[in-house]
Amino acid sequence: MARLKQTIMQRSFTYMEVREDFLEGDDLELRQQSVRSALNMKGLASRTAEARPGTFFERMLSTAENVEEIRPESGLRFGLIVNDDSLEIVDDRADLVHTVSPVPWTVGKEVWISPFRNKVVLGHRTDGVWILSYDDGAWAFSDFAFTETAGGELAQPYWAYVQDAPIQPSAATGNITIRAAKPIWTNAYIGQRIRYGSREIEITGRTNASVLRGTVVSQLPPSFEIGVDDATVFRVGEAVTGNDTNFQGLIVGFNGNLLQVVTTTFFEGPDVGEELSGPAGASVITTKADAAPFPSPVWDEPLMSPLRGYPGSAGQVAGRLVFLDFPQVPDAVGLSSTRRIEDWNVGAKDDDAILRQVGDGAPRWLHAVNMGDLILFSDSGVYNVPARDNGVISPSTFNPVLVDDTGCNEIKPVKVEDGIMFVDASGEGISAAFLDGNVYLKWSVKRMTTYHDHLIKTPRALCGPALRSPAAEKFMFVVNADGTVAAVSWQQSIRDEAVGFAPWVTNGRFVNVAPLFGGYWAIVDRDVGGTTSRFLERFSDEAFLDCATTTDDTTDAQLLTVNGQNLTANGETIIVSSPSAAHLIGETISYYAEGWDFGDFVVQPDGTVDPGASVVGERQIGFNYECELAPWPVESIESPRIGTLTARVMQFIVSVQDTLSYEVTCNSKTKTVQAYRIGDDLDKPPKPRTEKRRFTIYGNRDHPFIQVAKRRPGPFRVLATGQRVQA
User: DSSP H helical segments within 3-107, as ranges?
Assistant: First the structure.
């Protein structure tokens, strides 16, 4: 019987690399648009695959693990670099424009950044919150200072951390002592402000664990001894109200028919003759007398302080600064007023600040992202605070609604145009929140790594797309703890389209990737000269090496002469190139010049590299990186008469575009396709070629291994692969 033969072509690599257990799943559409492996490859909008861009060396770093773009004014863009011992601001050429040193933190990677107009808010969970401001070319760095009100009080958020220890001021004004019912005071209170009945006392000293010294900022609420006809209807701890004056207070003790009351509202106190009402009843007031301040449980202290810590994350929405992940109140969310981000005067007016404990089951709030709506991420779910369609976030409307119970971890989520991608609570998967629906829009959560989980290896950072990039392709990067990167690609909408993942590696370890100045920049640790050094590098489609330096300047090179005359080729002077790669001294690097691959060399102690040959044009010196694309072998084919038949792969077909040298491996046989072809002028650089080639597959026909790879620097694009099979 004649054997059935078919040629199966693959022209879409949309999903890029998926899990190895799809090996037998060639009847699945996902497998037909994915590959077995895709090392250092990227997916294109045309659904083809191309070698990832190389990187150009920009500057050395010390301890920074992130660089973030800030835009203090329209048309101005800078990069903000946080080190352990300094804060650096660079321009789009990575040149230093401003440095802040020393800095108030000790571990730079733990500092969060929240750009806000011409101010950048920075913070650390234990060290504090600060503002970097820009005004007409001048930078200033200072502590985050809350707005001071007309009465001298601070518009800062307060929290009742201690609720079982009433405090008693010695007087309502002036320099006083504050006695606590329990030994709760520490030296950390000195310099802070506490509130007694919503009025501030600035703490100036500590006598012992039960007594503080302080100065009253504004007169404290008075205490009264109020006589009533019948005290039996009242209890200690109950709130009472004067029916005529609207006086409000709290009962803190009894002395017969005399109630000991601390005032909360209306400092003049109630009137004799009016009724005083409580939860269980009312009684007529017979007497009223001023008293020294009584011990009161109605007191609080700053939500943020050296004692209680500071927010571990921040965001912004509708002109409000959002603080969350408070160390001792993890289920609290705070939003500044709309008046100023330093104004945290909590109240009921629409523009007042908001401070709430919200969420189901006391979640730990981790991140806040402005997507028109305010999306809040916690360790036990994703919540939405609606603000789209002319919605207003105010004290009366602030009500986070659960979207999905997928938890998030501490890695900062990133915007991806119409969604937000985040690392889930397990720390090993990537999910995304999208706004879905045709008529009624609502937020939903979708897991993104179901078919790519082998590429996610304890992520340490996410990098969102460069939203201002003119490129057709959009990328997100998952930076793994092992120093690899999973590059995520899509074309238009990540919500509606298939997403591809591909692993990227380098001669070193990726620390982070950041969208910066319309492109992508990387922080990389590399072992150079026996020491690990940290580099800031820029991804570029024009770079064919990593950590590359490039030059066509002849000032540091020696002209090649013959009989005293400059030697030329094609009208250009030939030079013996000695460009500097001082950042890679002692390392073995590759030398590439506009199509010419001069091979590998060691960078000399003076930073120069001599290829031993004449070079014309731009040269690149850096680390070579290899690219590989391995398609799935065809396992079965369809016969119109017999049905599904087991296939044996006989031939591999690869179509490349604008490509130099590459190699094809079919099982144990590898064939290299050289950049030069027969008849090429070897005095000129090889030309990238667009061609289709066929390769015979020998040996193992069950799950054969097929791969096309780039081993040397140069362009490399795979348009399609094919397999000639028979059954």
Answer: 29-32
